[in-house]
Ribosomal RNA small subunit methyltransferase I
Amino acid sequence: MSDAVATPTLLYLVPTPIGNLEDITLRAIRVLGEVDTVLAEDTRTSGRLLQHLGLKKPMLSYHLHNEHQQVQRLLDRLERGERMALVSDAGTPGISDPGFLLVRECLARGLKVECLPGATAFVPALLKSGFGAERFTFEGFLPVKKGRQTRLQELAQETRTMIFYESPHRIVKTLMQLAEVFGPERPASVSRELTKLFEETVTNTLAELAADFGSRTAIKGEIVLVVQGAKIEKPSKADKYDEE
């Protein structure tokens, strides 16, 4: 029997519900209860979740605007054996949320990292769209200004199903731009408020979706936009009697 001791996990990436609090896993609850510190994108949001779960844990703010300043201090604490859980406001940390930098540096120093499976918004949106899920590309948020049109042009001939995250105040503009570049008849699906009381998924052409959401007085909730990939034009078979 080996005397080797298993390397302890020091950093856990813990997915949190994207809306419905029942979507937290039993393992996530256990890990959050066992770690020494919870790193949170917004301590107020994560604090309410911990309170709901009946957990009291020291929390540290870790978000897009302070992650570069925080990483070295966190690494020092992790190397001393402190166990931490990283959570985002909703979903899996590291997917369009901070997390990559800390994970990369932990791995470079030989610190063990574990990622728990759990809630993420793009999976239910993809499956509810009714488009092919065998092959897809996750694009996250499009560039807001610089490089936006270039990226859209690059994706115009993408044959895989495409998944985007978008904010409520930019969704109409994005749908209009996609309709202009991809063509107004390209099928797409907009999901918002996933797992919540007023969950909605609307599937139509890009032009119709732009008109639909453009006519609304208010749009609420984080949005997942799924766009069907470009169809490959198959060359027609030549008549067997045609001469070369």
